[in-house]
Amino acid sequence: MGEFRMPSLGADMVAGTLTEWYKHPGEAVRRGDIIAAVDTDKGSIDVEVFDDGVLEQVVVQEGQKVPVGTLLAVIRSAGEAPAASGVAPPPRAPAATVPPPAAAPVAQSEPEPAGRRLRVSPLARRLAAERGVDLASLHGSGEAGTILREDVEAAASGGRDRQDRMRRAIASAMSRSKREIPHFYLASTIDFGQASAWLARWNAERKPAERLLAAVLLLKATALALLEFPELNARWENDRVTHAAGIHIGVATSLRGGGLVVPALHYVNRQTLPALMVELRDLVQRARSGTLRSSDLADGTITVTSLGEGSADMVLGVIYPPQTAIVGFGSVAERPWVRGGAVVPRPVVTASLAADHRASDGHRGAAFLATIDRLLQSPEAL
Amino acid sequence: MTREQLKQAVLDALLAVVPEARPAQIKSAAPLRDQLDLDSMDFINFVATLDQSLGVDVPESEYGRLATLDSCVEYLSARLGIPAPSP
């Protein structure tokens, strides 16, 4: 039997509310299927299953808020005999299996009535995600208590519950980071002229839907550089650094209602620039429409924050634990630059690294930034 | 297509990118990026939506012409051959 548990969707998540089962006992499931929706401080997340088989038993009902790691359902593997009727349900995982961090303001301050089922219209669910409304806090006015669009709109006009919870979640993760991780910071300004010119040529030959953003070049260069610096694409846990198997870059994505989420692009080093652009576009769209999947949020091995056009020149990030580094890119802007003994205007970008000093050191960090610089001088090879 | 219809098409494209935008609150002469908190991804999606809905491929070098709602209508009117309103 496979166990389907409440996933950890980031260091700041201690609990989640199971809002909907998309599959029901007896239905077949395949690895990668989205079988449930979970409401977290950062929005409603579709949760995938990682086993093939049949949904044998639902342990946690819709509307229940449970700690990360709690058994939600049992998946019967393909070829396995069904459990005999009358067999006692599998025990729920004790919360101690995955203990919440000491600072757990969300779980402590918002107990959820156990067993309350949430019925939500699809439109209401989408609207709730967009407006930052906690579905679990609403009482539906529709048939059998179904939460309707009107209920969400009424709640949205009256409060900022989601934003408040998101800010508390961010505060918890960032405070933990600053308490526990000895950060060191480095920054390097990079001549982005070659990359800008290459990008302009590429985009000039293509329709808008096929054009690339500078962010894609920065992400790919970061991923390729990480191949040489695995300690920055890693986790620090149990007093040791563990290198990640793949390069999955969490992309800090701001939400219009306030706050941010950090969904991950997978295997960035292996992707072509156009494929990466497609994935980035999809990821940002899903982050902002409240339709992220659990794997989007659980898999990041390093974070990149990019401020985009017309913003600040540099950003020094706070590491998202248990990751060991965050890379920042300021705005690409034209600045005076010495080239061939003359001062010329060039587009430049300042790359920064905030890294965990337990896992790496300044010498390696500086070499990492230099590698990104070198890679960006040959954009056609990215 | 009239200029009014074009303006509505531009608003529709903006709403496709920023569903929570309130069209009535968009100031026609103020920068869209600032009003709607558009980032680079939003803007490229806006340009792609205009291409799909109006058949106007705005080159990257002319993105600056789409800074405000007014300038969008002005630029796209010229590209589509829609006459300016009579004085």
Beta-strand portion of chain A reads: 25-35%
Number of domains of chain B: 1
Query: How many whole angstroms does the radius of gyration of chain B measure?
Result: 12 Å
Total helical elements of chain A:
9
Mean pLDDT of chain A: 84
**What is the level 1 CATH name of the largest domain in chain A?**
Alpha Beta
* Overall mean confidence score, pLDDT of chain B: 92
Radius of gyration of chain A: 23 Å
The strand count of chain B comes to: 0
- CATH topology heading of the largest domain in chain A: Chloramphenicol Acetyltransferase
Assign a percent range to the helix content of chain A. Answer: 25-40%
Shape of chain B: globular
Give the uncertain stretches of chain B in residue-range form: none
What is the N-to-C order of secondary-structure elements of chain B (H for helix, E for strand)?
Answer: HHHH
Largest interface: A-B, 23 and 20 residues
Features:
heterodimer, A: 382 residues, alpha+beta, OB fold (Dihydrolipoamide Acetyltransferase, E2P), Chloramphenicol Acetyltransferase, 2 domains, seven-stranded mixed sheet, four-stranded antiparallel sheet, 9 helices, 19 strands, 28% helix, 26% strand, globular, B: 87 residues, mainly alpha, Non-ribosomal Peptide Synthetase Peptidyl Carrier Protein, Chain A, 4 helices, 54% helix
